[in-house]
Amino acid sequence: MEIASGGGRQPMTILKGKRALSGAESEVSTMPKALSHNQICEYEQDGVVFPIKVLTEGELVTARSAFETLMKALGERPDSVLLRHLHLFHGWARDLALHPRVLDAVEDVIGPDILLHSSTVFCKRQRDPGYVSWHQDGYYSGLSELQYTSAWLALTDSCPDNGCMRVVRGSHRQGIVPHNRAFASPDNFVTMEIACRVEENEATDVNLAPGEMSLHHVAIVHGSNPNASDRPRIGYAVRYVSPRVRQKLDHYPTILARGHDRFGHYRLLEEPPCLHSRKQLARSGSF
Ligand SMILES: O=C(O)CCC(=O)C(=O)O
Predict the structure, then answer these.
(1) What CATH fold (topology level) applies to the domain 33-286?
(2) Which residues of 52-69 are buried (b: 16+ CB within 10 A; e: fewer)?
(3) Which residues have C-beta atoms less than 6 Å from ligand 1?
(4) pLDDT at 233
(5) If you ran DSSP here, which 8-state letter would residue 259 be given?
(6) Helix or strand or coil: residue 34?
(7) Residue 131 CA, closest ligand 1 atom number
(8) Nearest alpha carbon, ligand 1 atom 9
(9) Which of the listed residues 134, 137, 165 should we mutate to test ligand 1's pocket, taking the one with most ligand atoms within 8 A of CB?
(10) Contacts of 51 (CB under 8 A, 6+ apart)
């Protein structure tokens, strides 16, 4: 990966043998709840771990059908803003975000105190030109520590041909790197991209079957290509943060998913609102 610096492009060396900058080491239990020791090491070294089986067939069918009902109500190709923070508005999305098997795996990488921070559905329909430029999730929010992880829950299969997520393994060990404004396109799900070129051979495809998930570190470089297949590709990305982490940017209300908040850095939602009408949903982008 090459990073632009002072007008030139310099190689960005992935640090070898350094542990993830999660700061969670002292809090993560020696007895993992869901991941094996190898998987935890993989997350620390690579910044990503997958596949993790999460949903039963029945849970998957329920979630997928609730999502499709919502899409019908929103007019099939809604502004992606309307697919953000669905856990604040829909019981089915909250159930996914607070699913015990998801939280067990999250606990294994960020510790027992977990705030449900935010969520977004990344939906690419058949032959969808939508793509995601290479970026780091942590660039946006200004976090004091990187004890923050994303679960990407596959509601369909997610493979190279339908535009699965792609990551640069180990890139999280560089911490947060400079970003530039991304090429402005309605097809790009993000507005900023890393100021580096990622070579094709540096990218790993995060292949997932429906009902599986990956966990990715907040500083890992990742993105995705358009959907070139005749199948949809739908993923629910749910973000979790340790209560000890401060955030510079204002944030949506968080939900205490597990454990305790001894710090009070975030607004906590006791009773998540459940909004159903289209008008209310349209306002949800600025909730
Ligand atoms: O779903 C994708 O293609 C990209 C997901 C992503 O950027 C994220 O979850 O942070």
Answers:
(1) Jelly Rolls (2.60.120)
(2) bebbeeebbeebbebbee
(3) 122, 132, 137, 150, 152, 165, 222, 224, 235, 237
(4) 98
(5) S
(6) coil
(7) 3
(8) 237
(9) 165
(10) 207, 208, 209, 212, 213, 214
137 with 225: CB under 8 angstroms?
Answer: no
Task: Using the predicted structure, report yes or no on whether residue 242 has a pLDDT greater than 90.
Answer: yes
**Least confident segment among 170-184, 210-224, 231-245, 261-275:** 261-275
pLDDT for 273 equals 59
Give the residue, 90 or 20, on which the prediction is more confident.
90
Q: What is the pTM of this model?
A: 0.88
Percent of the chain topping pLDDT 70: 84
Which ligand 1 atom sits nearest the alpha carbon of residue 120? Answer: 9
285 pLDDT exceeds 70?
A: no
> Which residue is it, tokens 């097809």?
187
User: Which distant-in-sequence residues (6+ apart) come within 8 Å of 195 by Cβ?
Assistant: 3, 4, 177, 178, 179, 180
The full set of domain ranges for the chain reads 33-286
The protein residue with its alpha carbon nearest to ligand 1, atom 7, reads 223
